[in-house]
Amino acid sequence: MGLLDNFERGLERAVNGAFAKTFRSSVQPLELTNALRRELDTKAAVVSRDRILVPNELLVRLSPMDYEKMAAIGSTLIDELTQLTKRHATAQGYQFAGPLSIRLREDDSLSIGILAVDSRNVRGEEVSWRPVVDIDGQRHVLRGQRTVIGRGTDADITVQDTGTSRRHVEILWDGNRAQVRDLGSTNGSKLDGEPLSKAPLLPDSTIQIGRTRIVFRVLPLSATPDPFDGPDVSGGRR
């Protein structure tokens, strides 16, 4: 990083600090996303021609008031931050040394509207992934290799939508990749707005059945311990 970059970052911190103290504007979720992206960009290390390593464990420190606000959102916020950070890493060609872990922590030394990000590389075991679907604000973990979604009580996930068939679609998961298939439904299905018969299912894709939107996500499962000492928020309050 050059002298000008350092100067601009220092100026940004100073301006943000003055603004926060004057107007007491609280941190917004978008600012967390931008801060995490900047941390990856700043700490990116070129290991070889085809490997750029970035920190996989990130701790976001917030003022008590901002922390309370963000912690109230709970695991949904952590999941979104994880997905957006992974997406940025993929777009930039970055690689993680281990499972991506994002934490939130209260820091009494910070003023409202100010946040700080600490990060480090921690080598982890092979990453395991958990497929889930979000339907009408509720998250369902997909268990097993085949999950049927529909209106019927015999479906693995039942939706209250008269525009859907009793067994409308199925999602197949082999531990690494997913596939979605329409089960001959009366009104048909769509995947990201396109008619669906059978297709690979990518993370953050949207399946439409009747009036119901199903968002498919893949979340990392990590057995590694908390990399930073002290209580924090990681997929829920602890």
UniProtKB/TrEMBL annotation:
Superkingdom of origin: Bacteria
PROSITE patterns attached to this UniProt entry: FHA_DOMAIN
Recorded coiled-coil stretches: none
Keyword entries, A-Z: Phosphoprotein
Classification via SUPFAM superfamilies: SMAD/FHA domain (SSF49879)
Keyword Phosphoprotein: yes
SMART domains recorded: FHA (SM00240)
Domain spans labelled FHA: 147-196
Name recorded for this polypeptide: FHA domain-containing protein
